[in-house]
Each structure stands twice: as structure tokens, then as C-alpha cells.
Protein 1
Amino acid sequence: MNTMTLGTTSLANDISLPRQARIILAHLESGKQITNSKAMLVYHISRLSDCILKIRRAGHDVRTDIRTDEVGGKYASYYLVPKWSEEHMGFKWSEEDMGFPGFY
């Protein structure tokens, strides 16, 4: 169950989440991705994976991209999938489904 703060529609104001997780959720809701280094530099949050876990447990669809840096090191980049998106719903419309083959 998501408990929302009165008078707001932002999911980042979900009062069941700790303050740091709400900060990360607000960042993700703005359409941006976040990495551990960005969380530390911008928000001074050192346990990003813990915040992501809490956000996921609150029912948000946070996905992980594993990336490789210039020297071959791997790191995670997190992003939020909007609840209304095709990716979140588990399907992708094809041209045939839309009734306009070759149109798109």
C-alpha cells in the first residue's frame, strides 16, 4: 500500500519511504538515471542499493543497467519505468497490432 502525503500527486512523497529513498525516487521520477557515484556526489547518499531496494519494495519498477567504464570496470545505473509505459505493462505494440502495417 502506498501512503501519499496529502495534497500531492508525486510518488516521491510516499511517507512510507525513508528520506534518502524519497530523494532518490524524486530523482528517478524526473526521468533521470542514477549511479552510486552520482548519488554520493550530488545527494551525499552512500548506500544507493539500499534505497533502490526500499523503492522497489514500495512497488516502484526500478530497472538496472549494467555499464562498463573506460577502464573496463562495471557499475549499475538505475532508472524508473513509468507505470503507464509499455515496458512496465510487459508488452510492445507492433505495427500490425496498430492496424497500420508499414506506417510507422
Protein 2
Amino acid sequence: MKKCLYCGSSVKDDEHVCPNCGGKLVSESGESSARQVPPENIHKEETQQPVTHANKNKLYSTIASIIFVVLFIVAFLTIVLCAILA
């Protein structure tokens, strides 16, 4: 058995198309390995960005900004409510 280079699933030696992703498997004459032709509709998985120091700082800055806005709104509404009730 061989493995599909695109999705990693096991493919029988006598198959010409990967049963999982549809990639065509083309046997080269005289060689035991196969060259694969990519399917036209295959979607590669998006890779996640590695977590870096800059990404963490941006995340913390965004969270701090959201907390600040929420606290400001709560304080403003408290002042308004106290003025109405007084």
C-alpha cells in the first residue's frame, strides 16, 4: 500500500485515484513509487499562525481595551442612575 501525498490516507497499489480526496495517482513506468496529480477541487487546510510575542501583546491590548470600555459604560450609567434617583 502507498500513502496519498495530499491527505495521507492509505491507497491500494492498484488504485489510480485516492478514495479520500480524489487525487489522481499516476504510476511512472519502471518505478515502484507513484507520482500524484493534484485534484482541482482539493482544499488544503489553513495553517495556524504560531503564537508569537507580538500576537500575545496584541491580544492583551484588545482585551484590556474591551474591559476599559465596559467599565467606562458601567461607571457612566451608575452616575446617570444616581442623578435620576436623587
Protein 3
Amino acid sequence: MRFLSIFISVALLLTACSSKVEREWMEGCIPVADENGIPTIICVCVYEKMVDYYGGEERLAELNEISKTNNMSIASKTLARENYVNTRMFTEQCKAEYGIE
């Protein structure tokens, strides 16, 4: 029952009041979470932590755009690696917060 209410909350977040950046994040996160048996609420939690860490959605959107390009500069590679490490770290934090192994 708890997961049903979480699912409904996530669905409302995605459709009602999410920004383009958040929708894109969720569109990328939810399939990966589903494949790994992780509740989608973890995607919401990680997204919020990423926005806080990077200081807002605008910076997160910039990182997303950089990741879509084929720019192989050292700076782009460094940002991509940092983003990957942070996403993994925040995923583990969120799983611990929600009591998910």
C-alpha cells in the first residue's frame, strides 16, 4: 500500500508541476530504476539532491546538455564523471533514507 501511494505521488509530480529539466531527469531515471527493482521515489529523491548539490535546475540542465554532446574535452569528461559519481552517491543515500537495500 505504501508503494502505491508513493507511485501516485510520483505520477502527480511528473505530470502536474514538474519542469522540463525534471521531466527529462525522470524519463532517464525511471526505466533504469525499474530495470534494477528500485522504486521510482528514489528518482525523485536523487533529483532533489542533484538540484541542491548543483545549486538549481539551471546548472543541472547545463550538465544534461553537455552530456548529450560528443564534446570529449577534459572539462566535459570531468563533469560527466562527477555527475556519474554524484548520481551513484545520492542513489545510495536515498535508498538508505527510504530503507531500501
Protein 4
Amino acid sequence: MIKSLETRKSGASFKTISKLATVLEIDFAELFALLAGHRRRKALTQSGLAEMAGLSIDMIARLESGNTGARFSTIEKLAQALGIDAAQLFTADIPASSLNNPSSPL
């Protein structure tokens, strides 16, 4: 399963991603805060990101607030819309000001 995920030959359910996140010590709350940070860094609104990723605005809002999980295919769509590799949604290599800036586009 890991090999097929790494080579993108297979998708993964939220349950599988959650298990991997636990093993890798990834905090999903952090993941979704990073999603919002990457979105703000690109000066996108939730609506703009939703349109670019082919998702609903409600889904973006729920993800960013941590009120829902996401399948790997959704994470990939978001990453593609943001112009980043999906792995970057699991790292905090973005300016701190983008993570918690309330004046950034919502």
C-alpha cells in the first residue's frame, strides 16, 4: 500500500491517511492550518481555491477549520490548485504570517 501511494498508483481513504499520519506523527489540525497558510500565501480566497481545485467552498472551509477529513485525491487536488507538491501540505515551510494572518483573504 505504501509503495502504491508513493508512486501515486493508488488513492487512500481518510482512514488510511489517518493511520499513516499517526505513525508519522502528523497532526491533521496542523495540516489544515497549513492548507490555509498556503492558500493565503497565494492570495487566494476559499472560493478561489475551491474553484481551482474543483471542490465546494464549504469543503474548503470545513477542511481549514478541521471539521472534516480528506481523501488523498482531495489533498492532491488542493496541492495542484496551489501549485505545490502534496507533501508540502505536511510541512511548515511557509511564512508564519501566512499561517495566522486574519487580514489575509478568506
